[in-house]
Specification:
Number of domains: 1
Largest sheet: none
CATH topology: MetI-like fold
Helix content: over 70%
Radius of gyration: 24 Å
Strand content: under 5%
CATH architecture: Orthogonal Bundle
Number of helices: 13
CATH class: Mainly Alpha
């Protein structure tokens, strides 16, 4: 039993030297602060029906353009509606659109990139050629075209933003697969008779997750910004509901009557995008062994 003691101590030392990636992430102050901000904003948006003091559509005409006070924490809009309540519900819409678009991008882009990278040859040329065509079109122009074709709505804005992100996800997945398909574990899988689908899905795809997770956080930030731009142009969420972008568009027309009307929706967008970018940088540093010094 004595010879096992050094082995146990060595394993414990190794585990303590390389803690789980979530612990390493939270040890980075910027990433931890960003995660806390996102949790607070997400929890507040999800709990909007519980914590909001008013109905988001309830109007108080005598109190229009009121400043922040104990009655209206962030003031009111042009119809006397409570801005705090409106921003809570608008944040929920913006975040749902952003997450929905990112899920669409990854649901379509990851299989395409995996297939192109693993199969190679003509399959790769066809898939990457189609992705290059999409990338050649400016992203916002593509989204505007799709929304204008499908009609302005929350669902169509989500679809348009999701289509925009497919080429980026596909190219990233393909790049990682090209590196992984030459590894020894892939050759070993082929040697024992594993099918190409089994190797690609069960062996290669899990090793593609770290860069895809990082890309997911950055893509979510971009999707929320694009949704805000579409809503600002009137092509996203339609009245009487609103997103942060549509609130900014409405507030711009009343900027001289109420400064606060513009500040708070814009500040919310800034906090969400800033936190997602910081979290993405932290995930990149934690999940990339070269940046960990391993």
């Amino acid at each position: 039993m004595a010879p096992l003691a050094p082995v146990v101590r060595r394993r414990e030392t190794t585990a303590s030297r390389h803690p789980h990636w979530t612990r390493r992430l939270l040890q980075r102050r910027p990433a931890a602060i960003a995660a806390l901000v996102l949790v607070v904003i997400g929890a507040a948006a999800l709990a909007a029906p519980v914590i909001s003091p008013y109905d988001p559509l309830l109007m108080h005409p005598p109190d229009r353009f009121s400043g922040p006070s104990s009655t209206y924490w962030l003031g009111t809009d042009e119809s006397g509606r409570d801005l705090f309540t409106r921003i809570l519900y608008a944040t929920r819409v913006s975040v749902l659109v952003g997450l929905g678009a990112v899920l669409m991008s990854f649901a379509a882009g990851t299989p395409l990139g995996l297939l192109a990278g693993y199969r190679g040859g003509r399959t790769e040329s066809l898939i990457m050629g189609a992705m290059d065509v999409l990338l050649a079109i400016p992203g916002l122009l593509l989204a505007l075209t799709l929304v204008a074709t499908l009609g302005p709505s929350t669902v169509n804005a989500t679809i348009a933003i999701g289509v925009m992100g497919v080429p980026t996800v596909a190219r990233l997945t393909r790049a990682v697969v090209l590196v992984e398909r030459g590894r020894d574990y892939v050759m070993a899988g082929r040697a024992i008779g594993a099918t190409g689908v089994r190797i690609a899905v069960l062996a290669i795809l899990p090793n593609c997750l770290p860069p895809l997770i990082v890309q997911g956080s950055l893509t979510t930030a971009s999707a929320i910004l694009i949704e805000a731009a579409l809503s600002y142009l009137g092509l996203g969420v339609q009245p009487p509901w609103s997103s942060l972008g549509s609130q900014l568009y409405t507030a711009y027309g009343y900027i001289y009557q109420s400064d606060w009307y513009v500040v708070f929706p814009g500040l919310t967008i800034f906090l969400i995008v800033w936190s997602l970018n910081l979290l993405g940088d932290g995930l990149r540093d934690v999940l990339d062994p070269r940046l960990r010094g391993i």
